[in-house]
Amino acid sequence: MTTKYWVGGAVTIEEQWTVTFTGTFVQNDTVSITVNNKTLTLTLADASRLSLANVATDFAAMINGNSANGSETRSALGSEVGEFATWSAAASGATVVITGDDDGRPMGTLTVSDYETSTGTSPDTGTGGADMTIAKTRSGVGPYTWDVASNWSSNAVPGAGDDVIFDYRAANGVKYNLDQSSVTVDNIYVRDSYKYGIGLPAVNTDTATLPYGEHLTQYLTLDGVGSGSGVVKVDNPMGSSIKIDAGDTATDLIVYGTGSSVDDAIPACDLKVNHASAELHVLGGDVGLCTADGATGEVSAITMGRGSGATLTIGGSPTVPTIDLSGGTLRTKASHATINQSGGTLHQLNNTLTTLNLNGGTAKIYSNSTITTVNMTDGTLDFSVDSRTKTVTNMNMYALGAIKDPQGVVTWTNGLDVYGTINDVTLDFPARRTWSLSTI
């Protein structure tokens, strides 16, 4: 095992793809290029510009957003489409070389197609007809690229069993070639001296006026962290967004602090893990677990520390059986077997909650499903935040506490069992109700 420190000092090499035109084009044939489901199409409407060199020149002009050279038409200009707006194209004979961003950003998966008017086929299959092909001729790398040796202190990319550290040594964040799903590192430490981020925002705003949904990998995605167990520790109050997918290992995720998120709807530190023995411990910062659309995962337990001021957001799909909440704010869309709450604020937004042990703090219930059992010794159980009907099967009030149901949306299947005196509890219920007393 060795320790690899992220430096981010590699020299930039811009990515390039080469388009080649062959055969004979005729008037009104089309040539197209596509990336991220966005397509630019050139229609060869000018009968005087059908040579391969002219087709290449006009194709490059479309990508660059230049004026038409003749009466050819374009479905759109590259300068009008975010994915193409930062690229440049240069024609030479029957080829066009397309060059990507000057920070080494990969361009994604580019495809081309042509349509021959005379045969009505795409791509052309007629004898002597026109054709176009595309190939990546140079990969983009630079100071933001994970798998470049010169971006690491030991001049070697992290591999199996290595510790990975992000700290003051870094000159940049890591953004590209994040799919490392064949690699299992030992531990990851993001220290408080690290000033940057890990990952990409969900919406690309490299051209501020032309945003688009990011099509490159957004999360540092690993096969796992630790061969049996490992740790991801994040203490990044001076940095930007941290996005890590720790894979299918029994990893402990520990967050002490976070910086500012680059996403409007995703926490500053958004994590994924998928193992029945994994755990998440949130002591500070703005943290998410599987919040991205469609993200799934599993942990055995989550803890949030008393007085931490932390915020944790849990998406709707991960499996999280047990949560211990003693401070901070928890917003969850997932189902839980048990939440032990002694402080802080719980927002149960969706799905089911089997047992809530409420010993302090405020539990706000939005979900319209059934809570099987609530055991309360103190705190506030608040149903006033959502007007949908809800059910509590067993309600046990052992000491102090307050229940807020001013709209009467809750069905108390087995009533309220009050083990102390009625003066010790506060019930905010609708007026004009019949109360039936019985022995527990």
Protein model, in words:
By secondary structure, the protein is mainly beta. The protein folds into two domains: 16-138, no CATH class; 149-428. 4% of the residues lie in helices and 40% in strands. The chain has two helices and 34 strands. It has helices at 52-64, 82-85, and strands at residues 3-5, 16-22, 30-35, 38-43, 73-74, 88-92, 95-99, 111-115, 131-138, 163-166, 179-185, 187-190, 203-204, 212-213, 220-225, 229-235, 242-245, 250-257, 269-272, 279-282, 286-289, 301-304, 311-314, 322-325, 329-332, 336-341, 345-348, 353-365, 370-382, 390-397, 401-404, 410-412, 416-418, 425-428. It has a 24-stranded parallel β-sheet that branches. A four-stranded antiparallel β-sheet has the order 6-7-2-9, with helices on one face. Strand 6 and strand 7 (95-99) form a beta hairpin. The N and C termini lie far apart (61 Å). The relative contact order is 0.08.
Short description:
By secondary structure, the chain is mainly β.
Taking Cα atoms only, what radius of gyration do you get, to the nearest Å?
29 Å
How confident overall, as mean pLDDT? 94
Task: Report, as a whole number of angstroms, the end-to-end distance.
Answer: 61 Å
Number of domains: 2
The SS-based structural class is: mainly beta
Major beta sheet summary: 24 strands, parallel
Question: Total number of β-strand segments?
Answer: 34
Strand content: 35-45%
Count of runs of 4 or more consecutive helical residues: 2
